[in-house]
Write a structure and sequence with these properties.
The protein is α/β, with parallel strands linked by helices. The chain has helices at residues 11-20, 47-61, 76-87, 110-121, 126-137, 140-144, 155-169, 175-186, 192-201, 219-228, 244-247, 249-268; strands spanning 69-74, 92-98, 204-210, 233-237. Pfam families: Abhydrolase_1.
Length: 270
């Protein structure tokens, strides 16, 4: 998952793949180093090291067969997934890169970019944090729409409630853990040659993104698609922000399900 996000951020996918379709899928979600229940070492993090964290966990589970894995990475998690796919492509049958970048190259004016980065670490009240998260993570159409479960007035209100629950029930990342993840994401770089190598060695690669994303500007997605090459699949969500997996949860889950099933079938037929 992305910067500072705990594994529970996958809750809507856990329900779909792990419970509603648990007879067909085995799903692994985990906290990246620096957040949640994982260790938070005081050192510089890198996406390549975090990819090794993931592989060690996967190996521990015994998922070691060729083309056995279906990897989904979001934001910083997508950067980690790129490193995993480049080094261990023989283990991966399908790869979903959501709301992520090969490297961060902002088109925002310099001082505005500095202002945005500083806002990430500025101390905030609870309401300020909720407001900033809502604005940065989601499209306005989603936030203002009625809560689909009918419990809260809007999706924005549901998000507030979920975040407040997390502050009380999920281990909060220490400041240095967050900063270490920020450094890992900021310094991530996957070259055009490495991206093409990934696409040449994994037959089922999908890039998904929202055009209203404020966390990673959309030109990053277009660059990623271009450098992965013509075989990559693309799903664009015009009204979505950074968290497509929440904003368009049904379409997103079905999209991933279909890709995984197709890749698994192709692997069985080899």
């Amino acid at each position: 998952m992305g910067l500072r996000a705990p594994l529970i951020a996958w809750q809507r996918q856990i329900r779909f793949f792990g419970h509603e379709h648990g007879d067909k899928f085995s799903m692994l979600v985990f906290d990246n180093r620096g957040v949640g229940a994982s260790d938070k070492p005081l050192m510089r993090y890198s996406t390549s090291e975090m990819a090794l964290d993931a592989l060690e966990l996967i190996d521990h589970l015994g998922w070691i067969e060729p083309k056995q894995l279906h990897v989904v990475g979001v934001s910083m998690g997508g950067m980690i997934a790129q490193e995993l796919a480049f080094r261990f492509h023989d283990r991966i049958a399908s790869l979903v890169l959501q709301s992520t970048a090969a490297t961060i190259k902002s088109e925002v004016p310099f001082f505005e970019n500095i202002k945005r980065r500083a806002a990430l670490i500025k101390p905030k009240t609870l309401e300020e944090r909720l407001q900033a998260a809502r604005d940065n993570l989601f499209g306005q159409r989603y936030l203002l729409a009625p809560d689909e479960m009918g419990v809260f007035p809007t999706n924005g209100d549901r998000f507030n409630a979920e975040e407040i629950w997390k502050t009380e029930n999920v281990i909060q990342p220490p400041f240095l853990g967050f900063m270490s993840q920020l450094v890992a994401a900021g310094w991530h770089s996957c070259s055009p040659e490495r991206l093409r190598y990934i696409a040449d060695n994994i037959d089922f690669v999908l890039v998904a993104y929202g055009l209203q994303d404020k966390m990673i500007e959309p030109h990053h997605f277009k660059y990623l698609v271009e450098k992965l090459g013509p075989r990559v699949r693309v799903r664009e969500f015009p009204d979505a922000g950074h968290v497509i997996s929440t904003e368009h949860v049904r379409e997103y889950n079905q999209m991933v399900k279909e890709l995984v099933e197709e890749a698994a079938a192709a692997t069985r037929n080899e």
